């Protein structure tokens, strides 16, 4: 027992150096040549940082493509989902309100076409993406409020759709921040 | 379609790489020459630092002594750092020290490879704690499980012996030859896909539409790699691998999901290569994979179908059930992740299990209740070993022969240990849930903060928490308000018992078997590497692990399912 204790203590110290010193230092070193230098990939607009490419942010003004509902209101110093169960009556009432609000804001959309991601909160509360349908269903509203031709806004969305890996693996998606940045630069 | 193809590719790639890795593991533990011998000087350095003679053979009691002592040292060290992190360096966001009951729960939970988290990483831990407590324990607890598993391999060899190899040798080699190199590769993929690896604090910023926010960061990539590879599952951020910095792309999701299944699966093949009984591996792999698919199929189906209650409101459900899920990952990959993380005691999440459809929640709980379909690194195979012992005994009685496993007689003592281990698991889960439900029902106003959802689902939240603790899994129905002394302490106790007894039991059985007289196989031997015996094990698992829980599952997820369909 005593021998074990001394060995355990000394081996632990040595392993701390290896696993918590050498290993993270190697990863940190590699990060210096990675995109964003390991700080997270930042996006600048007109000379100021407006966000992180991979971290979703709140877009609830109607002239922008809106991002998904968030349980943490896109405060990225925290994260998390709503954790509401599928049969929770209070939760279902909230979703119902969101569906009705979406239909009102986007009168060209009919019931049955409301993109599910726009009425449900994401897992992280920081989802940076929409599905292509989630963006296309907002085109008419955004175009009307900005006085732009619908076809142009639709083409902008089409240009921002990211296909699955090798067109085969995973879902298609649109980065909301990139799309809205491009939208702001449309004249 | 691309979503289903995505998960098929992950599974295929894992199997294809687990076989060569299994062969490699067998050579490493056997001490044969191989390409990674250039690491031998590093290992000698570690042994010298610890004052350890790695060549000394140990009995099963000595193995357990070494294992438990070093775990105790880690526990005290972790407790110390967590309770003082507020005044230690590397704390740019000025997060406070942990309260003692939370530190107790956290230290145990990472020590036992469970990684139940009753805090959120962004505000609950300093960077120092993330690295020297969380990440450190993620490495060493995984290596502990692997070392214990090799002890059992040794006992199943031909011949009789007292000596079952050297614990420190297996433990250190698991780190230097397996966990550290593969973690480094995974971490490199992550940083180049955009996962942060920095010691800078959170960054305040004003968003495009003008809101003020701040983005938490940290040394994420290094930790996420071992979190998955060591089947630990405790995330850097509160949202775990649903967080877009912890799991930024579909590619990182594939790599992380691959990493967490890799070693548990490779250990199964390592068993065959180590004992030179390849057919035995195929039997074990077959049983485990059958159980896995049985849980996976309904989960993928129901998650891709979506919530019928929301469909009725006029939503377009082609993405599936998106509450608690991320667009870049999608419903299929979230379902696959959910099942792999519960059959394997990893417990990281890339979508919120609390918001999954009831049948998915049921499959995830069943995955943890059986806890032997691949299972955690090392310990999954130990749990499976217990079921094999029971199956051998029952089959032996059925055909009227002395029960024998690989030439060693299974007798009353081994059976008692196996049954205690097998029955401990339902006892922990059901007694814990019963106690919590009793308290809640007795005084719903006082405990109103516990449950985020009413009715059947609220019951499922409590059941899931104890299942996760007893399976050393660490995922949660996170709506549960679990950072209270009751939950911190009760789950902490369940964690300790459910980690160490399932290691002590199989190692003790192994030690007892190893000493017994070896009878070479003959025509009268019950062969354990056949499909018939595989079927037998499969049913033993379902009867012992699944049926014990059926009443509880009927009250929670099953009742909820029928209430919305």
UniProtKB/TrEMBL annotation, chain A:
Keyword presence, Ion transport: yes
Stretch forming the signal peptide: 1-30
MF (Gene Ontology): ATP binding; P-type potassium transmembrane transporter activity
Membrane-related topology note: Single-pass membrane protein
Domain of life of the native organism: Bacteria
Subcellular location: Cell membrane
Cellular-component GO terms for this entry: plasma membrane
Sorted UniProt keywords: ATP-binding, Cell membrane, Ion transport, Membrane, Nucleotide-binding, Potassium, Potassium transport, Signal, Transmembrane, Transmembrane helix, Transport
Subunit structure: The system is composed of three essential subunits: KdpA, KdpB and KdpC.
Family affiliation: Belongs to the KdpC family.
HAMAP family named among the record's database cross-references: KdpC (MF_00276)
Free-text function comment from the UniProt entry: Part of the high-affinity ATP-driven potassium transport (or Kdp) system, which catalyzes the hydrolysis of ATP coupled with the electrogenic transport of potassium into the cytoplasm. This subunit acts as a catalytic chaperone that increases the ATP-binding affinity of the ATP-hydrolyzing subunit KdpB by the formation of a transient KdpB/KdpC/ATP ternary complex.
Protein's recorded name: Potassium-transporting ATPase KdpC subunit
Organism annotation: Hymenobacter actinosclerus
Gene: kdpC
From TrEMBL, chain B:
Protein topology in the membrane: Multi-pass membrane protein
GO molecular function (one): P-type potassium transmembrane transporter activity
Gene Ontology CC: plasma membrane
InterPro entries, per database record: KdpA (IPR004623)
Location(s) in or outside the cell: Cell membrane
Sorted UniProt keywords: Cell membrane, Ion transport, Membrane, Potassium, Potassium transport, Transmembrane, Transmembrane helix, Transport
Subunit structure: The system is composed of three essential subunits: KdpA, KdpB and KdpC.
The protein's role, per its UniProt record: Part of the high-affinity ATP-driven potassium transport (or Kdp) system, which catalyzes the hydrolysis of ATP coupled with the electrogenic transport of potassium into the cytoplasm. This subunit binds the extracellular potassium ions and delivers the ions to the membrane domain of KdpB through an intramembrane tunnel.
Record's protein name: Potassium-transporting ATPase potassium-binding subunit
Source organism: Hymenobacter actinosclerus
Originating gene: kdpA
